[in-house]
Amino acid sequence: MFGEIIIVGALISFVFFSQHHGEQPAPVEHQAVPQEKVGFNVPDYRYVMSYQGLKPTPKTIKENPPVRVNPCLANSMEINFSLRDYKLSEEQKSSINAFVGKATYCGAKKITISGSASPVGMMRYNKWLSKQRAMAVKKYLDRRGVSIAYQVQIDPQTMISERKASLSFN
């Protein structure tokens, strides 16, 4: 009985649709239309359609220019360390180099370095480890001859996932 109701309902809607609406609408085809280049020379593809009756025609939108993001708004970074570790890897040094380049480009007056450790273990050891992490970054900046002033802060106990040194500029 329930199956017969569904079939009858489908037939009624088909008959109603074909009698009152003429033809069925053509399937909509979406085409990617290349826009102006957006950052890093990458084209911005959007699906844009304008409808004339039932047939879509692609159009290009010119009223929405690409958004340019100010790189100086993101003025901090984190360097994560392994448990009980404070030595900088080559990858971490490369990240610091990029950060210092960005700080210089943005006209930073001061870089703040903050070392931290997880709350696991003794307070005295965590304080020492936090200082070692911050000092590792400071010594690396000294060796590079960074001309921006910097300040070292120590936060001996933070959340367990925060075995890091943080850098920020202003």
Automatic annotation (TrEMBL):
Residues 68-170 form the OmpA-like domain. Keywords: Membrane. GO terms for cellular component: membrane. It holds the Pfam family OmpA. InterPro entries: OMP_bac, OmpA-like, OmpA-like_sf. It comes from Hydrogenovibrio marinus. The keyword Membrane applies. It is found in: Membrane. This is OmpA-like domain-containing protein. Its main location: membrane.
